[in-house]
Amino acid sequence: MAKKEFQAESKRLLEMMINSIYTQKEIFLRELISNASDAMDKIYYKALTDDSLTFNKDSYYIKISADKENRTLTITDTGIGMTKEELESNLGTIAKSGSLAFKNENEIKDGHDIIGQFGVGFYSAFMVADNVTVITKALGSNEAYKWESNGADGYTIEPTEKDEIGTEITIKVKDNTDDESYDEFLEEYRLKAVIKKYSDFIRYPIKMDVKVSKPKEDADNEFEEVEEEQTINSMVPIWRKNKSELTDEDYQNFYQEKHYGFDKPLKHIHISVDGVVRYNSILFIPENMPFDYYSKEFEKGLELYSSGVLIMEKCADLLPDYFSFVKGMVDSEDLSLNISREMLQHDRQLKLIAKNIKNKIKSELQGLIKNDREKYEKFYESFGRQLKYGVYSDFGANKDDLKDLLMFYSSTEKKLVTLDDYVSRMPEDQKYIYYATGESNERIEKLPQTELVADKGYEILYFTEDIDEFAIKMLLNYKEKEFKSVSSGDLGLESEEEKKELEKDATENKELFDHMKSLLSDKVKQVRASKRLKSHPVCLTADGEVTIEMEKVLQQMPDNQNVKADKVLEINVKHDVFNSLKDAFESDKDKLSLYTNLLYNQALLIEGLPIQDPVEFTNDVCKIMK
After folding, report:
1. Minimal CA–CA distance to 110: which of 203, 200, 195?
2. What does pTM read for this prediction?
3. Residue 553 to residues 100, 306, 308, 562, 608, Cα–Cα distance (Å)
4. Which terminus of the chain, N or C, has fewer Cβ atoms within 10 Å?
C-alpha cells in the first residue's frame, strides 16, 4: 500500500509543532480526550435534527488503556467516527479541524460546546509516539478504516474491521532517552493524574482499568490485587451546578480537592454570567495568608478552563495584584485560544472577565464589612497590607477601588474602623482626618504629638505598618476630607487667639531658638515653640511631604538614597524644662548646649529613631545627675 504525504505541510512544520507548540508533553492526552469528547458531541447535535437518531448519554464514554509490555497507549471513544474522506481531510491535512468545520456548520446550543478548533491537537501525540494508529467507523457507515503514520513522512489508509461506531487511537510510546522518560505515560497513576488535571470536567466518563486491593473471598485479613473499571473524571463541574443545589460544605470540599490552600476559605463567590462574555467562576477568599505570599515563589492567578478543559493553571491576567490572594477558577466557552490552546490569542474577552471578577470581589468584601465585620477583620488581618500596597502602587491608579476597604485602629473606638466609619463620626468643626504613626498602638498612644488632637476630642487613626503612610499620601483625601498627621506642621486646630500667643512666644524666644538650631546644625531644619504639646517638654515634627516615619521606612530600603525628613524640634514653652533652657541661655551657654543635645536625643528616642552617639548621650545624662 502506497504511503501518502501530508497534503499541505512539510516535515519541518510537523517537527515544529511537536517540539515548539506545546510546552508540556502530557498535553497530548488532554488533546486526544478533547477530540474524543467532540466526536460524541457531534452525535448529540445530529440527534437534535435527525429523528432517526436517539442520544442516550449513558452509551457514550472514553476508555484509556495502557499496555506496558508492548509500550502502547489506547484511547477509545464511542463518538461519531470518521469516513475515509474525513480521515483524508482531517488527519491528512495538518491544522485542518473537523470540529471547527462542524462548529461553523451547526449552531451550537445547550451548553455542549465543541472543544476543538485548530486540528493540530491530534498531532501532539507524536511528542510521545513513534507510531500512531487510528481505527475508526463512522456513524451510518458499514466500512471501517485504519489510518497509520510514523510522523512527518506521511500516512497510510486501508480498510479494516471494527464492530462498533467510534474511534480507537493507539500510540506506540517512544523508548526512554537520556533526557526524557516516556515510561510515565504508561503508568496508571500518571495517566490518572493527567486526566484529573486537564480533563476532569469532560462531560463524558473517562474510564480506565485500575488495580485495586480487595479482601480475598473465604479468607480473613487477606487481600488480593484485582483490576476493575473506574471512571476517573468528575464530569459535572461544581461551577455548572445551580447555586441552590450546593452547600458550604460542597464549596469547601472543592477548595480542598483543588489544593487551593490548607485552611478553610473565609468566603466563596460563585459567578455565572451569560452576557457579552459567557463564563462561570468560583472564587475563594482564604482565611490565612499563604506561607510564601510575599516571596518570589508565590504565583497569583486563577485556573482557566475553556469548555471544561484546563488551559492554564495560573492565569495572572484574571486578577489585579491587590487581589492576588484570591483563589479559584474561571470557565468560559468564549475565549480565543492560540493553536496550542495554552495561551490566549486575543485578550478582549479576558479583560472583560477580569474586570467583572475585580468588581465582584470588591462587592463581596464590602458586603462583609457591612454584614459580617468580624469575618472581614479576620480577612484584613491577613491581607489588609496587600490592599494598602494596591492603593500605593501604580501611582495610585487603583485607590478608588480600594479606599472603602481600608481599616485602621481608632484612638476612640479602640478597634479597627473604616475611613467611612471615621468620617461619619467627625464633628462639624473638624477639618481633617488625623492620624499618628508608630511601631505599635501602645507606643502611638504615648506620643506627645497626639496630645492636642486628643484634647480636642478628635479621633486619631493609628498607622503601625510601614506601608500605611505611603498609601495615605497617595490617597490624599477621603470624601473631601484631607489626611493630616499629628506630627505635621499645621494641624489646623488653633484659634486666632492661640495663633497670636504662638507668634508672641516665637518672637520673644527667637534668639534662644536660633541658638539651639545653631547648636544642632543640620540635624533639624528649625527649633520652634510647640502648639501641640501639653504635658511633654519636647517632640520632633516634620515639615514637607516626607515624614519621620517615611524616612525610617526609606532608610531600610536596599536602594537607600538617604532621603531625610525636614525635622523640626518643638519645645513646650509652658513646661518647666523651658524655664531651665531660658536660664541656661542667659547665664551658661555650655549648659544650654548640654540641655539642647539631651532634648534632641530624647525626641529621637520618642520617635523610635537611633541616637547618633549613645555614649555621648549617657555621658550627658550623667552630667545632669552630678
Report:
1. 203
2. 0.82
3. 57, 45, 47, 11, 12
4. C
